[in-house]
Design a protein that fits this description.
Order of helices and strands: HHHHEHHEHEHEEHEHEHHEHHHHHH
Helix content: 55-70%
Keywords: Glycosyltransferase, Membrane, Transferase, Transmembrane, Transmembrane helix
Strand content: 5-15%
Protein name: Glycosyltransferase family 2 protein
Shape: globular
Subcellular location: Membrane
Strand order of the largest sheet: 3-2-1-4-7-6-8-5
Oligomer: single chain
Number of helices: 18
Distance between the termini: 59 Å
InterPro entries: Aspartic_peptidase_AS, Glyco_trans_2-like, Glycosyltr_2/OpgH_subfam, Nucleotide-diphossugar_trans
Organism: Lophiostoma macrostomum CBS 122681
Length: 501
C-alpha cells in the first residue's frame, strides 16, 4: 500500500502531470513573448516613424521642402506665442497671490475665517508601499504634526496598498492612530492602483466637506490646507482648488534641476495663465482640493493611466469651477534618474492621449449633468479644449517632423562650418528669420516671467541653462508624446510607478 508520500511522488511523475506542466510552460512562454512584443512594439514604431520621415525629406523637391519648412516654423511660432501669452496672463494671478500673502503677514497671519467655522477636511495621502516604503512614515508624521489646521476639523488619511505584507512598517503605520487622534490608516483590500485606493475611500461616509489628494512623496506647506479652505469659503461656486507643486530635490543632479524649472514654469506660470486665458482650470493629480460631494460622484476611472486628468476633464465637462491658487504650495520629489523620468513621462503621455481621445468631444458637445444650472461652455472654453487636447497632441508630430527635416538636411548637405550649420537649421528661407526672432523673444519673455515666480530651490543660472536646452527638451517631449501614442495603439496597459527615495 502506498503511503501519502509515495502517492504524491507517483502523481508527480505521471504522464498526465508531465503533459500539464508542459502545457503550462508553453502557455507561460506564449505570455512572455506577447509581453515582449507589446513592450517593444512602440519603440519600433517610433524608430520607424523617424527613419521613414527623414528618408522622405531626403527625396523631396526644394519647392516642397520650402512648404514644409514654412509650416513647421509657423507651428513653432504658434507654440511660442501661446506659451508667452499664458505667461503674461499668469502675471495677474501671481500678483494677487503675493498681495494676499502680504496682507496675511501684516495681520499676524490671522486668516479671515474663525476656527469654528472652517470646513471639515479629509486629507488623503495615497501610497504604493513597495515603491514608497522608505518615505511613507516620514510624510505621514510630517502631515500629522506640521500642518496648521484645527485638529477637530481635519483628518489625515493614509491610503495604501501592497501586494505583499510589509512588516513592521504596516504595524507602525496603524499605530499612528493611537498616537494621533486625527490619523486614519487604511490598507485597501484588492487594490492595484491609486484609483482603487481613492475609490475605496469614496465609499466611506466620513462627513467631510472637502477632500484633498496628495501623492506620498509630497510635503504640503503647513498653511496650504488653510489657504485652500479659505478659497472655498470666499467663493461658494468654487468646486476644486489646485495648488502649486514645487520640486525640492532640485540640487540633486542636472535632471532634477531641469525638472524643477519645468515645474515652476508649469504650476506658477502655465496653469494659472491658461486658466485665466481659457476660463477653466484643471486638477493635476496631487495637491488638489475637491468638494466632497463632487469627488464622490465622479470617482476615479481605474481604466485610465492618468485617472486624475480624466477626473479633472470630467469635472470640467460638467461645468465645475477649478481655480489655481499659488499660495497652496506643496513640495515633491522629481525623478533622480533618466530611466525613472522616462517611465513617468511615458505614463503621462499615454494617459493624456487616452484622456484626449475620450474628452475631445467637449469642443463641440453640450454640457451633460451640469453642476451649475446656468453653465454654458462658451467659445473661449471650447477653443481652450481644442488647444489643450487636440493641438497639443498634434504638436508632437509637427515638432518631430521639423526635427526629421533638419536631420535630412544634415545628411544631404552636411555643413562644414558653424555659420553653415546656423543657416541650415534656422535661416533656410527669408521668412524664417522673422519667425525665429519672434519665437526667441517669446521664449525670453516666458523665461523672464518664470524667473519672477521661481521657487527657492532654483537659481537664475538654472533657468538660463533650462532656456538654452529648451529646444532639445521640446524634441524629447514630442518623442515621448509619440511613444505614448504608439503605446495606446498597441493597447499597452502596464502601470509603472515612479521610483521614490
Amino acid at each position: 500500500m502506498s503511503t501519502p508520500g509515495d502517492f504524491t511522488v507517483d502523481i508527480g511523475e505521471s504522464p498526465v502531470n508531465s503533459s500539464s506542466e508542459k502545457a503550462v510552460s508553453k502557455k507561460s512562454g506564449v505570455v512572455n513573448v506577447s509581453s515582449f512584443v507589446i513592450e517593444w512594439t512602440p519603440f519600433g514604431l517610433v524608430v520607424s516613424y523617424y527613419v521613414f520621415s527623414t528618408c522622405i525629406y531626403m527625396y523631396c523637391s526644394e519647392g516642397l521642402i520650402s512648404v514644409f519648412w514654412f509650416i513647421y516654423m509657423c507651428t513653432n511660432f504658434y507654440i511660442a506665442g501661446a506659451t508667452v501669452l499664458e505667461a503674461f496672463m499668469s502675471i495677474t494671478p501671481c500678483r494677487e497671490a503675493r498681495k494676499i500673502v502680504t496682507q496675511a503677514d501684516q495681520k499676524g497671519w490671522l486668516f479671515p475665517t474663525p476656527h469654528d467655522r472652517l470646513l471639515i477636511l479629509d486629507l488623503l495621502i495615497v501610497a504604493y508601499l513597495p515603491n514608497e516604503k522608505d518615505i511613507i512614515m516620514d510624510r505621514a508624521l510630517y502631515a500629522l504634526e506640521q500642518i496648521d489646521y484645527p485638529r477637530d476639523k481635519i483628518r489625515i488619511n493614509i491610503l495604501y496598498n501592497t501586494p505583499t505584507p510589509m512588516e513592521p512598517l504596516e504595524t507602525e503605520l496603524h499605530h499612528l492612530m493611537e498616537t494621533h487622534s486625527h490619523a486614519r490608516v487604511f490598507k485597501v483590500p484588492n487594490s492595484t492602483s491609486k484609483a482603487d485606493n481613492l475609490n475605496y475611500f469614496f465609499t466611506l461616509d466620513t462627513g467631510s466637506d472637502l477632500i484633498a489628494i496628495y501623492d506620498c512623496d509630497h510635503y504640503p506647506h503647513p498653511n496650504a490646507p488653510r489657504w485652500a479652505v479659505e478659497r472655498f469659503i470666499a467663493d461658494s461656486a468654487t468646486d476644486v482648488v489646485q495648488g502649486r507643486c514645487v520640486v525640492f530635490n532640485a540640487e540633486e543632479n542636472f535632471l532634477t534641476s531641469m525638472i524643477a524649472v519645468e515645474f515652476d514654469k508649469i504650476y506658477a506660470v502655465s496653469h494659472p495663465g491658461r486658466a485665466t486665458m481659457w476660463g477653466f482650470g484643471l486638477f493635476c493629480g496631487s495637491n488638489g482640493y475637491w468638494r466632497t460631494s463632487l469627488l464622490r460622484d465622479l470617482r476615479m476611472d481605474g481604466s485610465m493611466l492618468t485617472e486624475d486628468i480624466d477626473s479633472a476633464l470630467r469635472a470640467f465637462g460638467r461645468g465645475s469651477k477649478t481655480v489655481h491658487d499659488l499660495n497652496v504650495v506643496s513640495y515633491e520629489l522629481a525623478p533622480t534618474t533618466f530611466a525613472a523620468f522616462w517611465k513617468q513621462r511615458l505614463r503621462w503621455a499615454q494617459g493624456w492621449a487616452q484622456a484626449s481621445l475620450k474628452h475631445v468631444k467637449m469642443i463641440y458637445n453640450k454640457p451633460i449633468n451640469a453642476i451649475h444650472e446656468d453653465y454654458q461652455r462658451n467659445f473661449t472654453a471650447r477653443f481652450g479644449v481644442l488647444s489643450l487636447l487636440l493641438i497639443r497632441e498634434l504638436s508632437y508630430y509637427l515638432v518631430t517632423q521639423y526635427t526629421c527635416l533638419v536631420i535630412s538636411f544634415l545628411i544631404v548637405k552636411f555643413p562644414t562650418t558653424g555659420q553653415e550649420l546656423w543657416k541650415l537649421v534656422y535661416f533656410q528661407y527669408p521668412v524664417s528669420q522673422w519667425l525665429f526672432i519672434i519665437s526667441i523673444i517669446c521664449l525670453i519673455a516666458t523665461i523672464w516671467i518664470t524667473n519672477q515666480v521661481k521657487s527657492e530651490f532654483i537659481s537664475r543660472k538654472t533657468i538660463i541653462i533650462f532656456s538654452i536646452q529648451y529646444p532639445f527638451y521640446l524634441v524629447l517631449s514630442a518623442t515621448i508624446g509619440l511613444y505614448g501614442h504608439a503605446r495606446q495603439v498597441v493597447k499597452y496597459t502596464n502601470w509603472n510607478p515612479t521610483s521614490r527615495k
